[in-house]
Amino acid sequence: MGGGELPGLLVNEIGGIHGILHGHVALLKKHFYLITMKEFLENRKHMSKKVQAIYLWWHKPIINRELLQSLPNLKVIANSGVGMDHLDLKLVASFGVKMANAPYAVSSSTADTGMALLLASARRLVEGYHVATSPGMEYSEADLLGVEVTGATVGIIGMGSIGYKIALRAKAFEMNILYHNRTRRKEQEEQAVGATYCEKIDSLLQQADFVMVVVSLTPQTHKLIGKREMELMKPTATLINISRGAVVDQEALVTALQTGVIRAAALDVTYPEPLPRDHTLLKLKNVIITPHLGIKTDKATYMVTEEAVENILAALNGLPIPSEVLPS
Amino acid sequence: TKPCGRRSSSFPSLDPPAGFGQELPYVLIDCIGGRYGVYEDHAEFLKKYFHLIAMKEYLENKKFLSKKIRAIYMWFHKPVIKEELLQSLPNLKIVASSGVGIDHLDLNLLSRYGVKVSNTPFVVSTDTADLGMALMLASSRRLVEGYQIAVSPDTEYFPADWLGAEVSGATLGIVGMGTIGYKVAERAKAFEMKILYHNRNQRNKEEESAVGASYCKKIDDLLQQSDFVLLSVNLTPQTHKLIGKRELELMKPTATLINISRGLVVDQDALVEALQNKVIKAAALDVTYPEPLPRDHPLLKLKNVIITPHIGSATKKTRRLMMENMMESIQAGLRGLPIPNEVLL
C-alpha cells in the first residue's frame, strides 16, 4: 500500500459492553487506522472514504444498505466468530464487498463449551454447587444423583469443525457417537472418532442420551428442534445447544422440560440473549443457561482477531481470502 | 482386562432370595432415606437378601440384635465403627464400605476383631474422572458464575469482555495416577492438553505414551508447569496435607487446583489464603474437610471457588452398582467364600 497511511478499519466501539477488547487494539493498530462508529458519525465527510474494511465484534456495527452506500471504498467485512446469520450476505455482495468469518480459532473453544455444558448438566454441577454452598439447604443425596457420561450415547447434530472436535472429545469419554449432517463425512473421519452417520435426524434423536446441537443458523435450521423432535428424544435425554437460540423452538422446549418429555437442557445460546428476566427457562431446575460462553477465552478471542486481520489484509491486497464467505 | 466389580445388574453368581423357613442374614445399616441414608430403592432391593437393621432399631433392642448382626453395610462412612460397636457384635464377619476410599476405616482394629472389609474400587472410576473433567471445564470457563449472570434478575446484557481461560491446549498436572488419574489423562488427551503426572511409581512406557503423559518424579516440577493441578491420590499419612503453602506457592498464579481425592490432602487454611492473595487463580473442590463445610467458612464465599458436595460417584447407575457390589461382598463374606473387592491390610 502506497502513501504510508494505514487502511481505515471501522469498528463499533473499543471497550464497553460489546466493543473490541482492549487487549486486541495494539494488533489492529499495527495494520489499520482504527475508526469507531462514533468517530465516523461525527465526521462522515472525512471518514467515509477512508474506511476500506469493517471488523464486526459481536455482530456490531450493524450492516445495512445505508451504511454500505456511505462507504465507497469498503472492500471487506470481517466477522469475529463463525456464525454469519446476522449478515445479509446478498446485500453486502451486491456492493462488491467481500466477507470473511473466523472458523479456525473458534472450534476447540466452542467444543470445550459444549463438553463443559454436557458434563455440568449430566452431573448436576450447578445444583450441587448450590447444595454445597447454601446455608441450611435441605436435600436428600438420592435426589441429587446425575446420569453417567462415560459410555453414554451422544448425538451430534451438525458435524462441521466444531461438531467434529466434540466427537474427538466425546470419544475419550468412551461415548457412543451418532451424527447427523447435511453431508456425510469421509469414512476415515468417521472411523477416527467412531461416529455413526444418521441420515435421518429421527434415528439420532431416538437413540441419544445427549443431543448436541452444533449447526449454523440458516432458514433450514430455524426451529430445527421443535415439539416433534423433542418427543422423539428419550425422556432421560439432555439437549445441549451451542449453536444459535433460534435453532430450537424455545416455547416447545419449556413445555418439554416441564412435562418430563426430556430430562434436562443446557443452553449456551437463547433467543434473545439475554432472555427477558421473567422467562420460564430461567426458573427451571433442570436447565443450565450460560451467557454465550462460546469462545470467550483470552486465547480464543485473540486468535479470532488474528484470523480477521489475516482475512482483511488478504482482501485489501487482492489476494485469496483464507476464510471467505460467499452468499450461497 | 475388565476390572471386577463393573457388572450389569443381573447376578447369575448370587443365590436367589432365601426360601421358606430360612432366615435372612442380619445386616446393620445407619438408616434408610433422609439426607445421607441408604436410598429407598436400594433398601427395597437389599431386603430381598438381608434383614436390614437400622442403628436406631439396634440401639433399642441391643440384647436381641447384637448376636444376630453378621455384617455392616457402610454407606458413605455410616454407621461410624468404633471399638465399642465391634465389642458388642460378636458375630460380625464383614464390613462392606461404599466407594473406593478407606481412610475412614481403622483396618488394624477391624483385623484384630477378625472382621473382613470390602470396598467398591473400580465401579467409581469413570464417574469420578468425568467429574474431575467437569470441574476443570466449569472452573476454567467460569460456568457457575456465567449461569448466575444468565439468570440474575439484574442482568441486562452479556458483557463482551467477560472471559474465561482455555482448557484445550493447556497443561494438566495429575497428582496420583492410579485408575482414576489415568482415566482423567485419557479424557484430557482429547482436549489436546499437555499431560504431566506425579505418582509414587512411574507408569510403564506404553501407558504413558497412550495418553501422552510425562512423569514428574518431583512434584515441584509438575506444580511449576501446570495450568491445572488435579489431585487424585488416596488419603494416607503420606498424602495428608500434600498440597500446602509451599506447593501452592510453586503453582503458577494463573493455575487452578482441582481436588477429587479427599479434603485432607489439601491444607485448607493455606488454600484459603492462597486464593485470597491470588497466589493461585482458582479452585474446584468436590471434597473438603469436613463435609459439608461450616456455613460461615471462607471457601464458600470466594468467587473463584467451585465446591460440589462429594458427587464423584453420584450417578444413579454407579450408586446402584456400588450397592450391588457391596451386597455381593457381604454374601461372599458370610458364606466364607473369597470376597470380591476385599481390602487387605
UniProtKB/TrEMBL annotation, chain A:
> Per its UniProt entry, which superkingdom is the organism in?
Eukaryota
Domain spans labelled D-isomer specific 2-hydroxyacid dehydrogenase catalytic: 25-325
Concerning Gene3D superfamilies, the annotation shows: NAD(P)-binding Rossmann-like Domain
Concerning InterPro entries, the annotation shows:
D-isomer_2-hydroxyacid_DH, D-isomer_2_OHA_DH_cat_dom, D-isomer_DH_CS1, D-isomer_DH_NAD-bd, NAD(P)-bd_dom_sf
What residue stretches are annotated with the D-isomer specific 2-hydroxyacid dehydrogenase NAD-binding domain? 115-294
GO MF annotation, one = NAD binding
Entries under PANTHER family matching the protein: 2-HYDROXYACID DEHYDROGENASE-RELATED, GRHPR REDUCTASE
In Swiss-Prot or TrEMBL terms, this protein is called Glyoxylate reductase/hydroxypyruvate reductase
From TrEMBL, chain B:
This protein's UniProt keywords: Oxidoreductase
Q: Which SUPFAM superfamilies match?
A: Formate/glycerate dehydrogenase catalytic domain-like, NAD(P)-binding Rossmann-fold domains
Similarity comment text for this entry: Belongs to the D-isomer specific 2-hydroxyacid dehydrogenase family.
Extract the InterPro entries matched here.
Answer: D-isomer_2-hydroxyacid_DH, D-isomer_2_OHA_DH_cat_dom, D-isomer_DH_NAD-bd, NAD(P)-bd_dom_sf
Q: Which GO terms describe its cellular component?
A: cytosol
| Keyword match Oxidoreductase | yes
Q: Start and end of every D-isomer specific 2-hydroxyacid dehydrogenase NAD-binding domain? A: 133-312
- Descriptive protein name: Glyoxylate reductase/hydroxypyruvate reductase
**Highest taxon, organism lineage:** Eukaryota
Instruction: Please report the stretch or stretches of sequence annotated as the D-isomer specific 2-hydroxyacid dehydrogenase catalytic domain.
Output: 42-343
Task: Kindly give the PANTHER family that the UniProt entry links to this protein.
Answer: 2-HYDROXYACID DEHYDROGENASE-RELATED (PTHR10996), 2-KETOGLUCONATE REDUCTASE (PTHR10996:SF236)
Kindly give the Gene3D superfamilies that the UniProt entry links to this protein. Answer: NAD(P)-binding Rossmann-like Domain
MF GO annotations: glyoxylate reductase (NADPH) activity; hydroxypyruvate reductase [NAD(P)H] activity; NAD binding
